[in-house]
Structure formats: C-alpha cells, structure tokens
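Risk register update: the risk of archive-format incompatibility is retired. Evidence:
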Amino acid sequence: MESENNLSLGIDIGTTSVKVCVVRLNSEDVLAEYSSDSNASVPSESPAGDEQSVTKIFTCVETCIKKVDENLLARVSCIGVCGQMHGCVLWKSDRLPQVSVRGAIERFETSNLITWQDGRCTEEFLRNLPKTAQRTKISTGYGCASLAWLQKNRPQLLRQFDRAGTVMDLLVCTLCGSSNPVMSTHNANSWGYFDLHSNQWESDLLKKEGFPVEYLPPVVEPGVVVGWVAKTWQCVPKGTPVLVGMGDLQCSTLSVLPGPQDAGELFVLYKHQKLFFHNFYVVLGGINLVYSMKIIPRYPVFDGIQ
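Archived output:
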C-alpha cells in the first residue's frame, strides 16, 4: 500500500501552457499527464509590458488537474511545482486566493503576473539601478527590475499589496494557505540581486537605494517542503507536502539525465541566447534537485545571434 500511495503530482506553469503529471516515485512511471493552453495574456497599461491573468493561469491548472483520475489524485503523497522564471506577481497576505469547500481555488485579488517577456524597463532605467555584484545581470522582465519599476512609476499599485513572488510561489502559498511566500534559489537567482554562494539577497545594497526589500521572500534550496495542502484540493488530500516552487529550466533537465544518482554535464541553449554549463546532482527520493551552475561568457552561437 505504501508504494501504491508513493505518487507525486507535478505542475508546470509555462508561459503559454500548463502541464500536469502524476508519477510513481519508486519507479518513475508516468501514470497521467495532461496539458492545456492557458491563454492568459492580458493588456498591459505599459506599452512594452507583458502581463498575464493569474485567474486564467490557475483556472488552467485546475482544468488539467480535473482530467486526472480522482483515484490517482487521492493517492498523491507530494506536490512539486515549477514554471516560468523571472516573473513577478503581487498579492496581499490577508487576501490570498483560497481553496473553497468545493475543492477549487477562488478569490483572486492579485496583480497581474508581469512575465519574463516584459519590456517596460528601458536600458536607461536599468543603468540607474543599483550595481549588482552577481553574474546574473539585471534585465527587463526580472522580478527585481519589475519591482523597482513599479516603485518608481506605479507606487500606488505596489502599495496595494504586501507580498511578491513568482506565480509558482503564489500557487504554493494558495495550496498551503500560507500568507508568507518562500522562494527557491532557482527563482531567486532569476529575479536578480541574489547571491548564490551565500543564498542571500543583496539587501544592504538595495536598501541604500531605497528598493522595497520587504517584498523579497525568504529563500530555500530546491526540494524543500515549505507547507502542506491546507484543504482537500481536487481530491488531493489535506496534509499533502508541497515543495518550494522551482525553475522550469532546471527541472526540465531531469528528463535527460541518465539516472537518479548520476552526476551529468549538460549544455543548454537558454531562451536569452546564453550558453550554460550545468553540473547536476539529482536525488529523486525527495525530488531534491541540487545543482551548481557556471555561466560561460556570452559568444555568438548562430550567425547574427548572441
């Protein structure tokens, strides 16, 4: 019976679609998998903005979950969430989306998701931001750049909320009924101003420049359980452990690694045309992903593309 209930529910919130799957952990057999286009894009008041509706994203998640056999969902023993990195969504701690008595997510009083494709931060704006000491340079569409832009250009909107995170962090908080988001190192690094060696935000640097550091969540390693399902959700039992939200790039490498205990070296051409060298050590027992990443200096990969 223990092996029968050793199932993991995986949720991937992509830029254009949502995917879910149920996997038996001891054998890695995929028992169910579904996907659906989210169609979540909404107009932005910023001409160069790129925003998505959280309501549409979460509705798409539940549309996929409802396709999974209820008997499988009732046997899920942990939930892992990954998705689009860099993006930023705001919410109020006492007005968190909630799982209703019907087992569905309701009450969406959040900002739109400002996605990684957002272009509102001009080169001039970025040059005036604090100078990070990290290899990950700040770009438009990164969470910290978006927060800085809102503070300067839409302070009233920013003050409506007191929490910020990726859309994966918001989903984790919603399922766990937690008012305080926790972010993985994957997503913290994607926001910028995060030191991977100390696992700390560059808070002192940002405070000197008046950046709203109170919106930056605490950070933990990927694979850490940050809460438990607060109410039965679409037949997933109350009390099911939920892992911290992780990055889609890192999680996508799991399918190409040779084995759960193997260290692998992998070259990945990422969406920003940078070449990354990854040295991964993966432990699937707790779905724990521990990795080190060295960014190779940018150089031409295809003619005319860097």
